[in-house]
């Protein structure tokens, strides 16, 4: 699942997890639990072995999602939902994971801006950064890279469409 920041992905996923607490999983948990720690050397080895769907380095620490972590979610009978951006979508497309791609789109860039500002979590600078990234994400979604595009205008309607796509 990918969407520009501020579109409403967390809002919708929260509803989904509340309604279906045992059906889904993430490759890493949101709250910092369930992380798998390893040494930097081992992490670099995994990069060389192309074990990661995506990885990044922030302030000297490495973070990443391995293909195996996603497969592990499936082996316990859950569906793994990945919260990824367009780079992540491209990376997943390069794996053998049997993935389906969903893009959650804002009704317009103007409304996205209102949501980001309304959430009260962003500085003016970070709003501009997110809007610039959103424009690229929206352009990418027009290339047919996703199996489904849901426009999050009305929350209940978007949630119904999300359930229909994800449970099929
Ligand atoms: N359909 C909707 N109509 C109006 N407001 C909405 C709708 N969906 C979500 N919002 C509001 O928009 C704001 C952004 O939503 P949310 O935090 O879920 O976005 P997000 O896509 O998860 O962003 P991020 O990727 O930055 O975490 C929130 O204040 C949320 O309440």
TrEMBL record:
Keyword field contains Nucleotide-binding: yes
Stated name of the protein: guanylate kinase
Domain Guanylate kinase-like: start-end pairs: 1-167
Family stated for the protein in its record: Belongs to the guanylate kinase family.
Molecular function per GO: ATP binding; GMP kinase activity
Keywords assigned: ATP-binding, Kinase, Nucleotide-binding, Transferase
Annotated GO CC locations: cytosol
PANTHER family: GUANYLATE KINASE, GUANYLATE KINASE-RELATED
The keyword Ribonucleoprotein appears for this protein: no
Any Pfam family matching the protein: Guanylate_kin
E.C. numbers: 2.7.4.8
Enzyme class, broadest EC rank: transferase
